[in-house]
Amino acid sequence: MADISELIADPAYKAGMDWLAQGNALEALKSFEKTVRSNEGHFIAWNNIGVLLHKANYVKEAENAFKKALSVQENYLDARINLINLCIDKKDRVAAVRELEILRKKDPANPELISLETAVNQVAGPIQVREPPVCTIVTGTLNRPKLLKNAIQSVIAQTYPKWEMMIVNDGGMDVSHIVNSFNDPRLKYFSMAANFGAAHSYNYAIYESTAPYIGYLADDDILYPNHAETLVNALEKNRQFGAAYADQYEVSCDLNDGEYTAIHEKRIAYSYDFDKIYMIAYLNYIPHPCLMHRRQIMQKCGYYDEQLTALIDWDLLRRMSFYTDFFHVREVTGEYYFPRNKQERISNMMEKEPDKWYANRRRLFSKRPDKPWDRMKELTFVLYCDRLDRAVLEQIKYLFEGCMYPKTVHLLLDEYNPEAVTLLKELGMPDFRFHFNSSPCGLKPTLAKYLRSYTDDGWLVLLYERIPLDEAWFKRIMEQVRSQILGLYQQPKTLEQAALYTEPQKIMTILGNNFQ
After folding, report:
1. One domain, residues 382 and 477
2. Is residue 195 a contact partner of residue 140, using CB atoms and an 8 Å limit?
3. pLDDT at position 357
């Protein structure tokens, strides 16, 4: 986001301010509109456009301008206050109360709070203090009004009443009339200035929400009435878990005229108990609508990655898994849909744009969340060879492309070779280091020398034979990692090929001292 000084230095914006100083509102409006055409993120100009349109009684247009300013900079309080005043003028009590609550949360000492509250009271009576929500349902929407209505209705029907639903329109057609038709203050609607993507919509909704538990619902899916109550109860009763998830039906159907028709099949595609290693290194087996997590877990793992255009749900769940286990509730609580005739989900990128798909996948697996982790450590692969050849290069390549668990790779070459140094540098692999002996020493002395300087807090895997690394080998390593996490792993007593050494210092004992 641009610095404030850069925004106010914009030539078109400065021209608009000059016109305002001269009392020419029309020319000022034109200048500010020119500003946002060249810089859509100029939230100050958007706010000024809203002020001028509001004064000219263009209420709807002014409201959109204020919301665009807030979609760019949610903490811009001038735009928030202006939006509250606009809601008061058009006697929209629900919207005014909602925006007033957000202002109070973001700036509880704001001097205008009292006067704004008084103004809202005069329009629609005293503000009623509601019991705060316990769970937030986050929904992003883009040009699917008929399906959105069904999604909202399914949330309204929840048996658990202490929820709020944050609906973020990601730059699509206005659907505020659909939200307002339910006349429920627990529904909170936000409209983005442009299509920023699903990750941005989710982050915006989470920032604006207040509940300690957060769940998700796509605009084309539905929740059963038991969903919120089931997962809130699971988290309340199992406080050692940072997240909980239920089962849901995957529905195969057709999409016609904006609605799902002709249901072909309904099945539970995923119903697996939580496996930390499987989530981190293999596959996402938790559909996003099935999930509810504690807000505080995001303080550790972070929010949605807005640089990703696919796999954003797996990316978040994968990062969460470094810090917590998930509680699985074997109960069906909703439906998510896959139309056969029109594949519109982001995940279809794998077939349509494979290059982009794998670029997203590489970014996802490259992440290494901040430590400490929950019962986990990095893997350090130590690969010994007497000379660098194609077989060794294939081993290195597989470690980075086939092993999706966080790792570093150390290559121990028995003798210095300048050509090998050049080749290894050209690989450009992250988290890859290589070491050379000044003269040939053999496996055990080379390994002992490396271990004396080893200071990382990780688990070692020794690869000193030229065996092909494949899926079966990776599965074996991951089983050893899983056993260690569950407290079932026993330290190897020999230099076994591809064994996991959870206490690397003990390898020196295995090696013995006769080679030093």
Report:
1. yes
2. no
3. 78
Q: How far apart are the first and last CA of the chain?
A: 58
The CA–CA distances, whole Å, from 91 to 19, 131, 365, 391 equal 31, 24, 50, 74
Instruction: Please write the tens of the pLDDT for every residue from 170-197.
Output: 999 999 999 998 888 999 999 998 899 9
Q: What is the pLDDT of residues 34-77, one digit of tens each?
A: 999 999 899 999 999 999 999 988 998 999 999 999 988 888 99
Query: How are beta strands 291-294 and 243-256 bridged, if at all?
Result: antiparallel
Q: φ, ψ for residue 63 (rounded to 5)?
A: -60, -45
Residue 228 · residue 158 · CB < 8 Å: yes
Tokens of 343: 């594949």
Contact by Cβ (8 Å): 337, 287: no
Residue type present at position 327? F
In a domain, 455, yes or no: yes
The tokens of 467 are what?
Answer: 């065996």
List the structure tokens of 263.
């249901």
CA distances from 76 to 33, 45, 69, 372 (A): 19, 12, 8, 35
Residue 237 lies in a domain: yes
Q: Would you give the DSSP letter of residue 132?
A: P
Structural domain includes residue 438? yes
Q: In CATH, what number is assigned to the domain containing residue 166?
A: 3.90.550.10
